[in-house]
Amino acid sequence: MRASLVGIAVVTFGLFGILVLLPILWLLGMGDGTYHGPNTDILEPGRAVVLAAEFRAAPSRRVIKPTGRTDFKEVMFDWPGTTPEGELAIAKGTRGVVEVDPAWDDDSCSPDRPIAVEIAEGEHRGSVVALPRRLLRGR
After folding, report:
1. What is the CB neighbour count within 10 angstroms for residue 47?
2. Which residues contact 106 (CB under 8 A, 6 or more apart)?
3. Which of 6-20, 23-37, 59-73 has the highest mean pLDDT?
4. Beta bridge partners of 125
5. Which residues have CB under 8 Å from 122's CB, separation 6+?
6. Partner of 48 at 20 to 30 A CA spacing, among 3, 80, 125, 130?
7. Pairing verdict, β 55-59 and 128-132
8. Are 94 and 119 in contact (CB under 8 A)?
């Protein structure tokens, strides 16, 4: 008799957890699979940015390639999942202006995605390079 009562209690609390607690946790965002972090926001063209750390950048045309499609942003550019290093040493604190952020929504906003930035000062002024999103700060 006692074993039956314990079994009923376990089943009841298990169902309570599944039917009541899981939906509450989902609503609170604990079941959301979207990346939410400091680099989630998409950088719009024309936005001023500053490089937070030195980076050896490649020209953006080698990293972010237009596909020629214009119907949906997710197919407008062909780009690698991370930003490769290149031959142009860009110093920490260098200012620039965003040309292209190939991300199209919160799920495509990896902190290592390449952002095409026109360098506004220094040795590489006027160059458009690919910089990782995690190193860019708005100014």
Report:
1. 18
2. 34, 35, 36, 40
3. 59-73
4. none
5. 90, 91, 94
6. 80
7. antiparallel
8. yes
